[in-house]
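Budget justification aside, the reviewers requested a transparent look at the raw inputs and outputs of the sequence design task funded under Objective 1. We therefore reproduce one unedited record. The lines immediately below are the structure tokens for a 292-residue chain.
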């Protein structure tokens, strides 16, 4: 089950539930426990703690209030570039192909009120606002602090006026890019948004990010990892395994890779690591070395 923003434009909960421009629900939607109500009073916003069913039965919702509730959304429309084309009010869009650095994109943008993403792994919303009172309300309730949004992940943005705003992408560091650009290396990228590994059968290698949830110390961030590995000829399956604790990753590889160097860019930590594929001669190390 996925969560979605619901915007209630009437005074009481059993009025029609309307999500402007991309979804309309009937009047008999039952809200589950852990729904969060955002309320406006005298120009300031506050968020409730997750509500129990007894509180939801008598919930009063003001004309500008909205709730975070588990109703399945439509898939967010994809963007053609890195410019966010926003209408006044709520917008539901997919992050660009390079993702979004949330702080760098929105911190100085006074016309943005809310940015929200739902994390299906932890069942918790993540949010950010450049406005101090809203950011304080996010920190005081069960909402994760939104730091980064992976490529094509759906997000909800409230803009105070129609505008176009260029997003700041999530780049791989120069330390790792130096090797990724070389012709004798190949790359493989995996996201922790699901438990499946990303595999290249032809090269007999697989990568799995072990960030199985974004719920890390109250922060929602980028769970991707990029493996930069040497191009070699292999005649065996990816039967060997290596799972260092830092970065939290899991690699399967053919025996021909043993004792060769590789690099990993960790998008969550924003660090580039160097490692060596273990063999009988080279023991597996619990942590990889950070390139500076």
């Amino acid at each position: 089950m996925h969560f979605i923003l619901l915007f209630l434009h009437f005074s009481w909960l059993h009025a029609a539930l309307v999500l402007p421009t991309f979804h309309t629900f009937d009047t008999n939607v039952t809200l589950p426990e852990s729904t969060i109500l955002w309320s406006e009073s005298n120009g300031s916003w506050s968020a409730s703690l997750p509500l129990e069913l007894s509180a939801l039965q008598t919930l009063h919702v003001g004309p500008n209030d909205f709730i975070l509730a588990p109703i399945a959304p439509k898939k967010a429309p994809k963007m053609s570039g890195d410019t966010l084309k926003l209408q006044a009010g709520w917008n539901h869009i997919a992050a660009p192909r390079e993702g979004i650095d949330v702080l760098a994109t929105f911190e100085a943008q006074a016309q943005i009120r809310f940015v929200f993403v739902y994390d299906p792994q932890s069942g918790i919303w993540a949010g950010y606002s450049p406005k101090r009172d809203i950011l304080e309300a996010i920190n005081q309730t069960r909402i994760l602090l939104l730091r980064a949004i992976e490529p094509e992940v759906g997000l909800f943005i409230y803009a105070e006026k129609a505008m176009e705003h260029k997003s700041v992408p999530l780049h791989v560091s120069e330390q790792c890019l130096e090797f990724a650009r070389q012709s004798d290396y190949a790359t493989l990228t995996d996201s922790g948004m699901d438990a499946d590994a990303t595999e290249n059968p032809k090269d007999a290698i697989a990568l799995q990010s072990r960030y199985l949830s974004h719920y890390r110390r109250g922060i929602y961030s980028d769970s991707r990892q990029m493996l930069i590995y040497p191009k070699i000829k292999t005649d065996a399956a990816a039967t060997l395994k290596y799972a260092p604790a830092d970065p939290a990753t899991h690699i399967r590889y053919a025996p021909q890779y043993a004792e060769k160097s590789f690099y990993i860019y960790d998008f969550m930590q924003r660090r580039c690591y160097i490692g060596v594929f273990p063999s009988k001669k080279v023991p597996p190390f619990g942590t990889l070395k950070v390139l500076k």
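The helical segments are 53-56, 102-106, 132-140, 174-180. The first strand starts at residue 4 and ends at 7. Computational costs for records of this kind are itemized in the attached budget.
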